What does this fold into?
Amino acid sequence: MITQQLFFKRLLIWRIKHISERQFILLLSGVIGIVTGLAAMAMRTFTHFIQWVLDGQLAQTITYGFYFILPTIGFAVVFLVKKYVIRHDVNHGIPSILHAVAHQKGIMKRFQAYGSLLTAPITIGFGGSVGLEGPMVVTGAGISSNICRFFHINQSNRMLLLACACAAALASIFKVPIAAILFAIEVFGLDLTLSSLIPLFVASLCGLFTSYFFFGSEVLIPMTITRAFSLEGIPFYILLGIVGGLMSAYFTFVYEKINAFFKQWSAPWQRILIGGGLLGLLIFIMPPLYGEGHEIINHLKEGHPELSLSSNLFGWDLSNTWVIILLLAGLCFAKVVATSLTFGGGGVGGIFSPMLFMGGVMGNCLARIINQFSWLGYKAELPNFTLVGMTALMTGVLHAPLTAIFLIAEVTGGYSLFVPAMLTAAVSFSVAKYFNKYSVYTMELGRKGELISQNKDQSILTLMDFEEVIEHNFTPVYTDMRLREVVYDAIRVSNRNIYPVLDRHTGALQGIILLDDIRHLIFDTSVYDKIRAVELMQKPPAIISLGTDKMSSVMDKFQHTSAWNLPVVKNGKYYGFISKSKLLSIYRRKLIFFTQ
It folds into this structure.
């Protein structure tokens, strides 16, 4: 063990001496891209194997009744894996990475490098209506974070390498390197600088090459455009954007409400039974809700919805277009319910695939409705509307329009749908933003004021640590003290000019005494035993509550009060002071560090 530690120590010293920081970050971005790509491939293969056994062999060939019980079994297995193998709760999706960036300076625990790798394939293989993209990103980010910890990478570069893992994961899944980079930039709020772009390029390309090495040119959602965009389609793409924005608001609303419902149930077995039972019922009624749902998107864009919808429980005649439209609308509205039930039941996954599923089905359904009214004088192309529908929903739910637009461009292998995608994304984003200020990924952190965004001022304030700015070298004064004790026990021994006045028994802050206010009394010994501390104190201009106030609100309090020192309380008791000079000094240091 000692020899191993010595070897690693020498390795780190050699690296510092012979490889510059920028070169090393580029090297690590490539390593992280390859490792993330390999993890993504392993997760995808494991998931498809489970689906082939359960869906392809059992449910399809023996009885559809398996659809009803498989999700519950899957959730139970995931719970056992988390409890006895991983021994930690595995948080799903990209919000867990954003939480690590906001609260833990980009440091993720070791189990996050493999937790999703074990649990997400089981969740989806047993019918969980979620996607692999989120778990793949979390796995890559966990690997990236632990590599950074080993090599003692600083905070700003650590955040950059987390974004590299995100880009590599998406590039390896969809074979869309540019959209993957844009996704990392939009979600993580990175600055568009050369020093951040090049590592993202390297990681994205390494993830892409890894995917090509194992799967060749096979793509998840192959697409061929049959007819280019024309001007008469503008009103209908605007309509698609409006519908996409409304569906995005619906997605977020249902997702939040169902998650809130499951938080009421504290026992895991209750969540497993409720979530698994309801999800099993939904899948039994509508089998296309099983798993990620990429297959139905491919069937819809090819104009063969019957390949996915023929197994509907109702046995309806699919030769009637309105029946297909009704079934597609049902799938669209039910998908987010199925996704939320999966999370509520304890499953692990992401919302990227469900969002693409809903968007594709929504666009295809709207195109079929338009085509039913010949008097409109426009024939909507099903592949085009299917693809642009994904753009609309991705933009509305994730608030990531550039990612959505370039994803379409790269999936189609050209820019023939670039204009309608831009138009639809702009409309969808505007409508969705009216209902929700934050995306699904960022809403929890955003509401708490802890979100790292492209607002540099807000991001720096979020990254600042309260304990770093709080000072404790202020001598306290108690309410039962006389002026004599204040002078001899506080003023004489302190090098500060402000003194917190506390209740001796509870430690609660009662007020403050300023040296300037009592300077004229210090030399009048005749009043030493006549004046009490409580008579000398005044209310502080403002009080900072540790655990409640955010750094941005602290800055606001200093600005509004023009004070130089403000007291801090913790759980109702005095804790220390924050000085404006120290706060601004640390802010400036963070700003320099953040922009390097």
About this structure: The CA atoms of residues 18 and 24 lie 10 Å apart. The first strand starts at residue 470 and ends at 471.
